[in-house]
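Subject: mismatched residue count in predicted assembly?

I count 631 residues in my input, but I want to confirm that the predicted structure covers every chain. Input:
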Amino acid sequence: MLTFAQEAASYETLDSNATAVICCGVTKEFGRGDGKSIALRGVDLDVAAGEMTLLVGPSGCGKTTLISIVAGLLDPTEGEIHVLGQDLRVLKGHKLVDFRGANLGFVFQQYNLLPALSAVENAAIPLIALGIKRREAIERAGELLNAVGLGSKLKAMPSQLSGGQQQRVAIARALGHEPKLLVCDEPTAALDAESGRVAMELLRKVAVQPGRAVIVVTHDNRIFDYGQTIVHMSDGRVVEVERGNA
Amino acid sequence: MGWVAIKMLAGDRTKFFGLIFGVSFAAFMMSQQVSVFIGIVRRSASQIVDVRDAPIWVMDSRIRHLDEVPGLPATDLTRVRSVPGVDWAVPFHKGQGLAKLANGESRSVVVMGLDDATLVGAPVEMLAGELADLHKPDAVIIDKAGYEYMWPSEAKSLAREGYRLNRTFEINDRRAIVVGVCRASSPFVTLPLLYTRFSQSSRYTPERNAMNFVLARAKPGENEQEVCRRIQEATGRLALTREQFFWKTIHYFLASTGIPVNFGITIALGFLVGVAIAGQTFYLFVVENLKQFGSLKAMGVRDSKIVGMVLLQGLVVGFAGYCIGVGLSAGFFTMTNTMTHLAGLYLRGEAMVGVAGAVAAIILFATFVSVRRLLVLEPAIVFRG
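Triage response: the counts match. Full output below for your records.
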C-alpha cells in the first residue's frame, strides 16, 4: 500500500502546457473586527506548467500571501485553490505536509539554509524528508550542486559561501526531489545585480521544464524578462496578466 | 532527520555549551547535595549499623533516637535472657564523656561499653592493635577519625609513622590507654568513638544505670520480630530489630531537625537553576531557529518529526549534562574521601537515579516549552523577509 507521500509523488507528469495552479475567487483576511486586514480580494489566477510565471507588484499588494496559499502554507478565507489537480481545501494535517514535500520546491529570499549543515547536506534535506536514505540523498544532492556550478563547494558551510552561491544551493535544494511546482520568493532581493542575473539564468535553465510550473514573486523589474507570464498585483487583486513575455 | 537535529544543536556552540552547563550544574548540585544529605542522615544511626553481631536492640520504651538513651536497671538483662526464643543477650553502654589530653586540651568523646566477656558490638576492622587488647586494664580502642581529631598534629605523619599506641589520656579523671585504632562509621556529631569494656565504661561516664541497651539475638529459626514482641511483652521495654531501630532514629532526625529543609532548599535551587538555564537557553535556541524549522515544515517535514528532532536535541543535552554533573559529583567525593570530616560520604545510587529523573524533568520542561512554539509555528513564516 502506498503512503500518501508516494501517492502524491506518483501524480502523472503535467503536460507542458497544462494548468498547474488554479485560483478562483481567493480571499485572505487577517485579524478580526477593527484589526482586520484584507490581503487578497478575490484573486483569480491560472499558472501554466512548463513556464516561469512572475508575480509582481508593490510591497503589501498580497504577492507573498498568494504564494503562501498556493504552496499550502496558509489557508484561504474564501475561494478555491487547485494545485497540480488537487483541491488543497480537502488536504489537512500531515496529508497536506506530505503533498508539499512530494510536489513543491521552495526558494526563499534569505535562502534559509541550515547554518550547521554543509552545502550538500542542505541540498539533501528535501530528499531525506521524503524518506530517501541519507547517503543516497547526499549523493543526489552532490550531482545537483554540480549542475548549478557548485561542485567544488559541496562541503562548504553556508557562512563560507557568497549570497549568490547560497542561493544556488537553495535552488539545488528546491529541485532535488523534482517538484512539479517551484515557488520562489524574491530570489534576487538579497543579491547584487550580477548574482541575481546568474540565479535567474539558473532557474530558467534548470528549473523551467516541461511539466513543472515555476512561480517567482518579485518586485525586481530587472528580472521581468525571465518570465513567460507576468502577473501584476495591486491591493490584493490581480490587475493585469501579460502572457508570452519571454 | 536525527543527524540534522544534532548538527543544528552542536552548530550553535555557545548555546550548546550553555545548555550542557545548565544541566551539568543542576545534576552536580542535586547529586552532590542529595548524597551528602543521605550520608549525614545515615550518620545519625551509624552506630546501629556498626553493631553487626546483634540483630535485636532492647531499650527504654520512651526512647526517640540513638543518642537519647536513659539507663536500664541491670535486672532487665536477666529478664531479656529469660524470654523464650532469645539465644543470648548482653549489656551495651553508650554515653558521652570529656577526655583530657596530656597537653591539657579537652575533647568530647562518645564511649561505647561492650560486654566484658563477648565484646559484642566491637568494631569489625582494626587499623592498629588487637581487639583482644581491650581486656587489658584501662584499655580503649579509638576510631580513625577520632584519633585524628584528638591528636591532629599527628594526622599528616600517620602514613609514615603509624598510630602511636599505648598513649594515655583521662576521661572523668580515669586513665584510658589507647590499645588500638579501628575504622568506624562517622557519627552524626563528629566526636571520637571510644570502645571499651562495659565494666570500664561505667567509670568513664558514671550514671546510675550504666546499661542503656541490651543487645540480643534470636535462636536459630526464630522470627526476630516475634522475639522482639515477646521481649516487649515480658519486660515492658522497647525491643526493635536493627533495621527498625535504624529507621526510627533516621525518622526522628528527618522530622525533628532542619536538615531536610536546608538540604531541600539547596537541592530545589539546583533543580530550579537547571530548569531556568536549560529552559531559557533551549527556548532561545528554538526561537532563533524558527525560520529553519519553518523551512523544514514547508519542505514537507511533518510536525511529529520536528518534535522528534527537538526531543532528540533535549536527550543529547540531558544525557551529556547528566554524565558531566554526576561525574563531577563522583570526582568531588573521590577527592574528599581522604578528608577525615568528609570521609564516608559518597555518591549514592539513590541520588543518581533521583537526579536522572530530575534531569529528565528539566529536559522535558525545556523541550515542552519549545515544542509548543514550534507546533503553532505557521510555515508561512519562511516567506517573511
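Chain A touches chain B through 33 residues (CB under 8 Å). Marking this ticket as 'not a bug'.
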